[in-house]
Amino acid sequence: MNIAIKVIYIFVSVVLIWNAISIDSWLQFIDLWSLGFVLTPTLLAYWVDNSNTFQLKLRTVVKVAWLSGFVGSLIGLVRVFSHYEVDVLGILMGLSVAILPVLYSAVIALLLTPFLGSCQPRSKYMNPSQLTKQSR
Questions:
Q1: pTM score, two decimals?
Q2: Do 61 and 47 form a contact (C-beta atoms < 8 A)?
Q3: How far is CA 102 from CA 1, 7, 72, 111, 121, in A?
Q4: Which of 59-63, 105-109, 122-126 has the lowest mean pLDDT?
């Protein structure tokens, strides 16, 4: 993909996300615990991954972002359902905070997807002539 198309993709994505967040108070989308729970393992995954290429590292980062987002949401859901007994408003507010880690991981994945490229490592044992023989 061309670099200009990637920049346009990121710009349009950020504008769309900002417009969706700006419909109401944008402060309702900020939870520092959830943000830290998603960003910390995601950034550590980039530094810990021993892959040779940038795209393979980004693929690991996107996977870890999704996993940490879902784990953070599960922890939030357990906390919501263990603390609120009958208070419906409290449960709804807790649920809105509990799903924020998935939102953060989705935004990370959305912004990094154009940079993943083709991450399929080629086998060192196959050359193009073998590929054409196998397809016949």
A1: 0.76
A2: no
A3: 27, 24, 8, 14, 29
A4: 122-126
